[in-house]
Automatic annotation (TrEMBL):
The lineage of its organism: Bacteria, Bacillati, Actinomycetota, Actinomycetes, Micrococcales. This is Aminotransferase EvaB. One of its GO terms (molecular function) is transaminase activity. SUPFAM superfamilies: PLP-dependent transferases. One of its GO terms (biological process) is polysaccharide biosynthetic process. Gene3D superfamilies: Aspartate Aminotransferase, domain 1 (3.90.1150.10), Type I PLP-dependent aspartate aminotransferase-like (Major domain) (3.40.640.10). It comes from Myceligenerans xiligouense. It comes from the Bacteria. The keyword Transmembrane does not apply. The keyword RNA-binding does not apply. The modification N6-(pyridoxal phosphate)lysine is found at K189.
Length: 373
């Protein structure tokens, strides 16, 4: 009897932890030994280093990416009842954050090739209630923010950078193009913590000051609430210290992701899959390597039988979800978004993914495709 090959998933941090264990535990120990567990030197140090990486003046560490979006919107002046233009093929938290502050998400359709916001459809979505535009740099490549601004004029841009650490586009680096930019350090992200974390970057000192208040109950002076609604949304010292370590390796990790993407392209380009397209002027960081096939569900079932568990990011467009039924969208309103949701799937992608697992994935996908065409 042959032993079944070990299964492969889209993401796994254990190889990284094995490699970096001593450094990570030393980072944890530095925090625990410092005598200060909340908003200390580690958060301050990380904020400085993360801002410098982006060439922006300010970074405010927060507790997760959803709250980073929420605080960023609030800081640029979005209030209950205001409309925020974004997309529906993103992680649900993009829209959850808008909803949580009482604002209303308005969804643009996306481009068939890059899966990014279709800027040509945005002008028709602008109303007197539109207060902000929230482009999502989906899967690791940037929306063309300069072109977006040609359409949206003086509306503030808040970037959702949760999937695009280190990516660059025509407008520069993700996180350095908007009035504010929100990051998540959820463990799977290109820069991932060992738990939850997030940050907002901004070029504006007053916006940064507001963000610092908003993450600290609305207080500037201790015990005195300056502004409501305030939040408790602080980045944890332990995660900040681990993130400092991992920020030092970010560019190297991105190069590893690009090498894996190149191998997938080489190994699968002559198949019936549609492989990711990179938009003009973009340097993709491959948070996810998303391919498409009209018989996606059959393909994923065949791969799962071979021990390869692939993922769909994301199976349901947000405008079709029950929780957002109050927005009044109907099936068919965003045709490209809806069609893509039925065809997309992600191949395994993380910096420590072995060549052997890359090769096994490519071979298994080719075998499965041979069975369905
Ligand atoms: C992960 C993600 C978020 C939410 O981040 P959390 O840290 O999980 O709250 C928001 N937007 C996008 C595009 C994401 O991928």
């Amino acid at each position: 009897m042959t032993t079944p090959a070990k299964s492969i998933g889209v993401w796994n941090y254990l190889a990284e932890y094995e490699r970096d264990r001593a450094e990570i535990l030393a980072a944890v120990d530095r925090v625990f030994s410092s005598g200060r567990l909340i908003l200390g030197e580690s958060v301050r140090g990380f904020e400085e280093e993360f801002a410098a990486y982006h060439g922006v003046d300010h970074c405010v560490g927060v507790d997760n990416g959803t709250n980073a979006i929420k605080l960023a919107l609030q800081a640029v002046g979005v209030r209950p009842g205001d409309e925020v233009i974004t997309v529906s093929n993103t992680a649900a938290p993009t829209a959850v954050a808008i909803d949580e502050i009482g604002a209303v998400p308005v969804f643009a359709d996306v481009c068939e090739d890059t899966y990014l916001m279709d800027i040509d459809t945005v002008e028709d979505l602008i109303t007197p209630r539109t207060k902000c535009v929230l482009p999502v740099h989906l899967y690791g490549q940037c929306v063309d923010v300069p072109r977006l601004r040609e359409v949206t004029g003086s509306l503030p841009v808040v970037e959702d950078c949760a999937q695009a650490h280190g990516a660059t586009g025509r407008g520069g680096r993700a996180g350095a193009m908007g009035e504010a930019a929100a990051f998540s350090f959820y463990p799977t992200k290109v820069l991932g913590a060992y738990g939850d974390g997030g940050a907002v970057t901004t070029p504006d000192g007053e916006t940064a000051r507001t963000l610092r208040r908003l993450r600290y109950y609305g207080m500037e002076e201790r015990y005195y609430v300056e502004e409501t609604p305030g939040h408790n949304s602080r980045l944890d010292e332990v995660q900040a210290e681990i993130l400092r370590l991992k920020l030092g390796r970010l560019d190297e990790d991105i190069r590893a992701r690009r090498r894996i993407a190149e191998r997938y392209h080489e190994g699968l380009r002559d198949t019936s899959l549609t492989l990711p397209a990179v938009g003009a002027g973009n340097e993709h960081v491959y948070y996810l390597f998303v391919a498409r096939h009209p018989q996606r569900d059959h393909l994923l079932k065949l791969l799962s039988d071979q021990g390869i568990q692939l993922n769909i990011s994301y199976p349901w467009p947000i405008h079709t979800m029950r929780g957002f039924g109050k927005l009044g969208y109907r099936a068919g309103d965003l045709p490209v978004t809806e069609r893509l949701a039925g065809e997309i799937f992600s191949l395994p992608m993380y910096a420590t993914l072995t060549r052997e697992d890359q090769d096994r994935t490519i071979a298994a996908v080719r075998d499965a495709l041979a069975l369905i065409v």
